[in-house]
Amino acid sequence: MMFQFDTSYFNLPEKFYSKQNPEKGRKPEKVLFNLALFEELNISIDNEEQVLAILSGNEVQSGSTPFAQAYAGHQFGNFTMLGDGRAIVLGEHITKNQKRFDIQLKGAGATNYSRRGDGKATLKAMLREYLISEAMHHLKISTSRSLAVVKTGDEVYREEVHQGAVLTRVMKSHLRVGTFEYARHFGTIEDLKALTDYTINRLYPEIIEDKKAVETFYLKVIHDQIELVCHWMRVGFIHGVMNTDNTSISSETFDYGPCAFMNQYHPGTVYSSIDRNSRYAFGNQPNILKWNMVRLAEALLPLFDVNSDNAIEIAQELIGEFDSIWHEKYKKMMLSKLGLSADDNNNFILAEELLGLMHKHQLDYTNTFASLSYDIQFENAPFSHPEMQIWLEKWKTTLENSTISLAETKEIMKQNNPVFIPRNHLVEEALNYGANGNMSYFMQFLEVLKTPYSFKKEHYNYILPPETGFETNYQTFCGT
């Protein structure tokens, strides 16, 4: 057998899932196999024909009982019943060291939750998720992983006709804030308790014996989610659709539809075509995260205390910790980008001053920090303006008074400031080539993104931001 499947999810009440086999593709064809991830997960691919059959949905491996998950969620602030409309979990693969991962096919056909959709996905959208998720992994950010992209041989009808494809997504868990909202709104307190106990047992087993396990669990999610979004802000990542159904309890970045990476620094940057009110703008991501954590607290209220007034008081106290946790983690993150200590508040003032200047002078976010960290001769030097020169001298003076050597400082900065990110114009170029059958540029770009913290002169073109016109008109889409 290829996968070592278990399905602990079936320990939950049946209302949390619907058993469903993937839809068979007309003519499956391998596009991409993530060989390093296959090896990491201890999955044998000696029989490539069988691997292709399973990851296209054309064959169900022995020991697998595929299913779609039920969940709800707030989408752009509006609550609705949802579920896996085009994703089917094949099972939970157990590695040799007993780690558990969901193996999910995305684009595998209609389910009970498809809401009149066809459940299919386009090749271009699945290549996008593969590219961005793997880039995020190499940026050292918690993320879903992409194991494979397989063409189905079917046509997918959207605004035009596309090639159909299935992506194999790997996560520690597909549990989400919306799963808890579903349990609270459409289930009983017993259902909610079963889900919470299952989640703690699967993701946070160290707190099982905690007398206040639910409260501890909630705070752990807050800490881990803040850590995740701080990393997004560190590299200029904009998720684009931070709905509660896209907020994973395991704090893994997932659902790479309308996401993008910011070029010129502006906290109001939005690329998503469906985010018309800038709800999920770059600089608003912390606020939305807090909003999503409040929704999780609301779902957990009956488990905080049987007395509703007491439960609300506990929830308010817990969510009240969010701002201080965020500030400390964000401050530490930003100052690590400048090689400065988080113990001195004046250092954070210096960081905020730099962001203000970057905004004012429309500077590239990634390249400004990279220019401080690496020996790169940028064509448009970020610090050429007199105001930037004044800031630069302040920063250098601060470093001279630091107890850390300049070499150590530069090393810290290089670990936190990438040189290479999935620039939006380069992503689109790679996807267009790939969708038209030419994967060479895609693979070359992917190789560059595997070492984002190491500059190579021969890859200089990959650090160049796009023309201004591209930024003005560029939009991302959810890919459904």
Shape call: globular
User: Unreliable segments (pLDDT under 50, ≥5 consecutive)?
Assistant: none
Mean pLDDT: 96
Q: Distance between termini? A: 32 Å
> What is the number of helical segments per DSSP (H or I, 4+ residues)?
16
The helix/strand series, from N terminus to C terminus, equals EEEHHEEEEEHEEHHHEEHHHHHHHHHH
Percent strand: 5-15%
Sheet of most strands:
6 strands, antiparallel
| Class by SSE composition | alpha+beta
Strand order, main sheet: write it out. 1-7-8-10-9-3
SS elements, strand count: 12
What portion of residues is helical? 40-55%
As a whole number of angstroms, the C-alpha radius of gyration is: 23 Å
Question: Secondary-structure blueprint of this entry?
Answer:
Blueprint: E1 5-6, E2 17-19, E3 29-33, H1 35-40, H2 48-55, E4 67-69, E5 72-75, E6 78-81, E7 87-94, E8 100-106, H3 123-138, E9 145-157, E10 161-171, H4 177-186, H5 189-203, H6 213-235, E11 237-238, E12 260-261, H7 285-304, H8 308-319, H9 322-337, H10 345-360, H11 365-373, H12 386-400, H13 406-416, H14 424-435, H15 440-449, H16 468-473
Antiparallel strand pairs: 1-7, 2-4, 3-9, 5-6, 7-8, 8-10, 9-10, 11-12
Brief overview, please?
Helices cover 43% and strands 13% of the residues. By secondary structure, it is α+β, with helices and mostly antiparallel strands.
